[in-house]
Each structure stands twice: as C-alpha cells, then as structure tokens.
Design brief:
Blueprint lengths: L7 H5 L18 H15 L6 H7 L4 H4 L6 H14 L9 H18 L15 H15 L5 H32 L3 H7 L2 H6 L6 H8 L7 H22 L9
Amino acid sequence: MEEFSPRILPLLWRRSVPARRAVGRPPRLSVDIVVTTAIRLADTEGLEAASMARVAAELSVATMSLYTYVPSRPELVDLMVDEVLWARGLTSDGTFRERVLLYAERTFAMYRAHPWLAEVPRARPPVGPGMLAEQEYVLAAVATLGLPVRELNRAAAGITTWVTSAARHEAESALLRRTTGLSSDEWWQQRGELWENWFDVGSHPTMTMIWNAGAFDRGADQQAQDAYEYGLGLLLAGIERSVEGDDRVP
C-alpha cells in the first residue's frame, strides 16, 4: 500500500511560510537549490539521472547530507513536478478561449522543456502550489462563461485532460527520439512492409478510403498535432454552447 508522507506538504508549500531568520552561518544548500539541480539533470539526461546520489555529486556534497533537505527520491520528484507546474505563471484576464489557449500553450512549452514529465504519473499529482494554481486557473476560465457551479469542474477537467494528454504524447515522442535515435516517421518507415505484405484492404475499408484520399500523408507527429487542435476546438465549442438556453451537456 502506498503510504502518504506528511513530510512532503511543508516542502511543497515552503514558500507560503515566512522564512525564519537564520542564526549563525547560512546553510550552503536549500530545497530550492536541490530541486533546481535535479530538474536540470532530468532535462538534459532524463528522469533517471536525477537520483539523490547524482544530485549530491553535482552539488559536491555527500549523498546523506542531501536527505537533510529532501527526505527521499519520490519526494524529490514531487517537488520537481510541482516546481515546473508553478513556473508556467498562469495568469490572464482574457476571454474564456484566450485563457484556455494560454494554458495550452504554456503546458506544451513546459513538456517540451521538461520531457521527463511524461515519465511521471499524473493520476496522483503532488498537492502543491503548482498543481492548485493550474486547477484554479482553468476553473476560473470556465467560470467566465456562466456555467452552473456543479458543471465547472467537469468542464475544466475535460480541458486539462485533453491538453495534458496531448502534451504528454508529444513529450513521449521526444523521449523515444532521444533514446532510440528515430523520429516517429522513421519508426513507421521501418515497418513499411506491413502495408505491402500484411495489410488487408478488404478488412480495413475505412482506413483504405482515408489512405487513398491522402489524409495519412502528413507525418505522425503532425497528425497528432492536427488531431489535438481539432479536438480542442470541438471541446471548447461544446462547452461554450452548453451555456446557451437549456442546451446542457448531459
């Protein structure tokens, strides 16, 4: 059973408490320095590189001394995730669509800068200021439409789920390209024999129709981006339409 450690909350919310005046020589390290170093390692070499031992080596300290600041590797990863979530700086006074598009733009930028995020499960995120800032921002954007309060959360969750899943997909492609040396298109090209020797036109008439129309001609990554933009447009239009008269989302 996964156990909750109460140690993580004071670390996640460390900036919400006024700093105590240090007595004597100030410490050489801080939680911020440890987290920043771990993020830098993960950005350049992958999440596995951001181990307690490697971070300690980067900071030229003994590994055990690092535990004074961050008690464990899982808690370090939580701190890393919430730090990059918070760094998006989600603030806007625009329209519903302007706010959502800003959220989407900065979320994609975050995953591009930190592709290791795709290796971290998001089903149980760190409950820190970064995660709550995201929730508040998207909920506030949806609230500008005048939806009933009970519908706000599911509309916001629909947006965050769609945007995050697409950004994670792009980051996963980037990680695979880094580890295999192959782009998504090159990976598919290696499997070109499938279409020549194994693909049965009669069993896949719809795919064949689309293929003949040239709709599969765009690269795999571009197709994913097209699908994301198409789906987001429909999602936002559906949310906006649900506030018109009695046309409610079931």
